[in-house]
Design goal:
The protein is an alpha/beta fold and 223 residues long. The chain is built from eight helices and nine strands. It has a five-stranded parallel beta sheet, sandwiched between helices. α3 crosses α4 (105-114) and α5 (130-142) packs parallel to α6 (162-174). It is globular and about 55 Å long. The chain starts with a strand and ends in a 13-residue tail after the last helix. The model is unreliable at 213-221 (pLDDT under 50).
């Protein structure tokens, strides 16, 4: 859970104070316009960026190391986004390796075959349909044994039908992960969802903001 968490950089505000809650087994859509700090929020939720204001909690407690261990940032531009010219099999091998899984040629072939993608192994990653790229990256992130939460950074920037990547994010949540999907306000309207909004408190009460260390603030395995 983020409680009034904001970030200020050397040239000004990167992320206005934002509060939101993500629970295990649920998908939360969060939105903000360009330059509102969507990637900063993703990194903040994963403990990779220190908040200048407020805090980010794991299971109701401040635990930056735990966040870094259990929250995966998926497809963040310039951070975790794969190079588009790399072949799919290379993306999978790297993702499996990061997740601590076998990543040899045989393991990669099996992983791709299980998802009906073995024939696409030699394609450049950018040649896959946008929703397929998102599903691959979410599945690879979920392969990490300690991963409890996924923050998907603006998959709508790749184009395609929003409902298709949203279904992949919903599937990840159905497997028990807390999932936060960041997108543009326009995409949230297209999906017909009421999102959490960057720069707002999004249902986090003043009492919770005042008592950010109370253990019952968030459910087990949630942000």
């Amino acid at each position: 859970m983020a409680v009034g968490a904001g970030v200020t950089g050397p040239h000004g505000t990167l992320l206005e104070p934002t509060s939101l809650r993500a629970r295990s087994g649920e998908l939360l859509l969060a939105t903000g316009p360009p330059r509102s700090g969507r990637t900063a929020l993703a990194l903040l939720l994963a403990g990779r960026l220190r908040p200048g204001t407020g805090t980010v909690l794991r299971n109701g407690r401040r635990d930056p190391a735990g966040l870094r261990r259990t929250v995966a940032v998926v497809d963040a531009p310039g951070v975790t986004e794969p190079e588009g010219s790399i072949e799919l099999r290379e993306v999978v091998a790297e993702g499996l390796g990061i997740a601590g899984q076998p990543f040899g040629a045989g393991a990669v072939r099996t992983w791709l075959a299980e998802r009906g993608l073995r024939q696409q192994a030699g394609l450049r990653f950018e040649q896959l349909p946008p929703h397929c790229r998102t599903r691959v990256l979410l599945d690879l992130a979920r392969a990490g044994r300690e991963i409890e939460a996924l923050v998907l950074d603006c998959p709508d920037r790749h184009g395609g039908e929003a409902s298709r990547w949203y279904a992949a994010a919903r599937e990840a949540a159905n497997h028990g992960h807390a999932v936060v999907a960041l997108c543009s306000p326009h995409t949230a309207v297209e999906l017909g969802e009421v999102p959490a909004r960057i720069g707002e408190h999004n249902g986090v009460s003043p009492e919770e903001q005042a008592e950010t260390t109370t253990p019952s603030v968030a459910d087990s395995g949630s942000l």
